[in-house]
Amino acid sequence: MISLIVTILENLNGFLKTDKELIKMAKTFKATKFQILTKIVLPANLSTFINSLKVNIGLSLVGIISGEFLVSKAGLGYLIVYGGQVFKLDLVMASVIILGIVAGIMYGAILLLEKFILKSKKFK
Questions:
Q1: Residue 24 burial (C-beta neighbours within 10 Å; 0-12, 13-18, 19+)
Q2: Second CATH level (architecture) for the domain 4-123
């Protein structure tokens, strides 16, 4: 939920910035709303979708960890809080390092997805 509002607003902004002339041209040629969406709006906003995924990685991990701070009996957030309470810095740092590695892997996966999608001839 923490990243939902950011995603909606960012994608809405991208939709509103879609070239109005292309949409007018498609309407002139009697394109349906679905065709305008799939052929003009979505391909024009593909980079916006990918950028929102990149932002959502951090926001989602923050939401998960903060939820674990409050109510969890297991997980990385719990280990960070527990390690801080019993003064075990190694437990806290190991949890933070694992969290950083997970975030890096997820970000790398989205970068690979971006390269794959943008290299395809359909979106050039």
A1: exposed
A2: Orthogonal Bundle (1.10)
